[in-house]
């Protein structure tokens, strides 16, 4: 049984590698490398996998999961610049793929290892990624 | 190959355990334990997994699947109070998790065992569960 | 210039007139008159109409509007039974139309008369109403 | 008869007034005034109002309207920082309200005056504005 | 007070004028004039405007409106070729604009003149029209 | 890590087997066998599965995937009649299942074998299929 909680945050970012020239960055990352940043409404879906507790009928209390996502993810990244403000992305290009990995790692530390964990992140209506751990 | 049919029903429910005090119920289930019930537009997605029939090009006839969901699930639960009206939830807390299990069990009896079956139930835009059998 | 804030609440309700027989209620209100209630995820969109403040660039501060909807509407109706728990519907059938009128009246008292006000309420993906005052 | 075309763009922005202190900006604009910007997937709906051409059955050719929105709005603002990159917002706080006014003014110059024009801009799933001209 | 009912139908169509050459049709209607037709999932929203009945709390019974749309619109156009199968479009180019006019005219005959009527038709996620009568 | 790109195309189709009578076709395929075709807005989601490139932070460049879907799928099927115009469906009933298989096969040839590939196709808001290869 998997349960899923959906939350959103709004952030600025830029894709580039500091050791590359502007031309190389533009060639590889296109308009996503624009120097003054752009931004997205990120949609995060967190899937937790485990057995149903026979007493409560819950896999995990969604109020607890909601609070966890709020504290670990939304408060950290909402209305932030992922490149400039967030140490989690130091040296890491904030692609949707890497955002999903970072979110998965932050939540994995806080969710009991007996539960499976999968993170979906959508950057736009057309682009999303799914990460379930290495 | 998996095919999916999406249907909806509207029902009232309440989360609580009768052997617990009101305080304990409120502590564990929060506002979901409110005594006079509240309700949701439940979204059910039924996934059936099997090979494509080379004659029809169907895994399963969606008209048949639609009718089955209508008769077994929608007519049973739509515009009902899951706690008071539905014997399927006698002694079972109608959490989204348990609703998915009940729907899966009802459909599993009616869908040929050669097909895989997975049920997704969304309670709100933010909460959903996925159940594919024990 | 109109601005809109969207919020949701989950409630139980039943359509019926107490002076009518069960048969008459079933005839007029169909399965919506089921005695043990059913429920919905209500989607509320509040439109406020006015000029842009040249200093802030806002018609009205959306944080203020969000808090107002939260306090006046969501806390009042979320996870409630509209028929049994909410004095606003005493003697009033909680149709989507009447829910929109009640929400409009509650907000109208709290929003400066210099602003226009329109309330949209959706009961399901297929049914919604729009109310802008008498 | 009104026709509507929907497009999206992704941009960074920040709400603040340069003559105010950081404290004052934070007080009025909250986390939207964060100095390093944040961003959104903006959804733009452009409504054009006019009679149906009896030959084509069109109010206006949607391919023409699509190209116009693309050239005037999307190429100008997509993957940009509205505060730093876009002269249209020099001295103008890039609130959703002001974004709608700027888009309306840019399109109004390019769409024949015989047509009505209304612009809807959504900043998030919960916030949107509607502007139809002064 | 306006109430709205949403329904969908799936149809094939082609935009062209029979008195024009293929080149002229392609020039004006682009890929929409492709001779072997293409198709859409049309979304129809019907808005009915009137006072709330003090007895029922309804503007109009949505079951009645649903049945009317089903009988007059969906059964007529669903899984049809608008150009070849539907006499309502004889000599009329089945643009979204004209589809909205035809639907409005069909429903206007069946809905009491004391009610206002507005029809929204979406052809895709990006294109829609609104028609409220001449 | 899976990434997903969503695109849409609009096409006409008809479900039938040429060796069957009209009655047999109607019996098996219902209104989907209507001789003059009907149509849909097909939604295609392409999932590509692989490791994150440590240099770019991408599994696969979404601009490349977008262009590939555009060239191989959208240009081929958009505004077409799948039965009459598309050799890929010669002798193949264009059910959603078979459309997903055809799209998967077309993309599989063009995407490096080191990547996993899964295709989701939705025919309507209620019907979709998932295909990940034999």
Overall description:
Six copies of one chain form a homohexamer. With 134 residues, chain A is of the alpha+beta class. Chain A contains four helices and five strands; from the N terminus they run E-H-E-H-E-H-H-E-E. The first copy, chain A, has helices spanning 22-29, 62-77, 82-85, 96-108, and strands at residues 2-13, 38-49, 80-81, 116-122, 127-131. Chain A has a five-stranded mixed β-sheet with strand order 3-1-2-4-5. The longest helix of chain A has 16 residues, at 62-77. The mean pLDDT of chain A is 97. Chains in contact: A-B, A-D, A-F, B-C, B-F, C-D, C-E, D-E, E-F. The A-D interface holds A 8, 10-13, 31-32, 34, 36-41, 78-81, 84-85, 124-125 and D 8, 10-13, 31-32, 34, 36-41, 78-81, 84-85, 124-125. Strand 1 of chain A pairs antiparallel with strand 5 (127-131) of chain B.
Sum this structure up briefly.
With 134 residues, the first copy, chain A, is an alpha+beta fold. The first copy, chain A, has a single domain (2-131), classed as 6-pyruvoyl tetrahydropterin synthase/QueD (Tetrahydropterin Synthase, Chain A), CATH 3.30.479.
Order of helix and strand elements from N to C terminus of chain A: EHEHEHHEE
**Class computed from helices, strands and strand pairing of chain A:** alpha+beta
The rounded Rg of chain A comes to 16 Å
Distance between the termini of chain A: 21 Å
Beta-strand portion of chain A reads: 25-35%
- Mean of residue pLDDT values of chain A: 97
What is the name of the CATH architecture of chain A?
A: 2-Layer Sandwich
CATH topology of chain A: Tetrahydropterin Synthase, Chain A
Instruction: Please give the number of β-strands of chain A.
Output: 5
Tell me, what's the shape of chain A?
elongated
Strand order of the largest sheet of chain A: 3-1-2-4-5
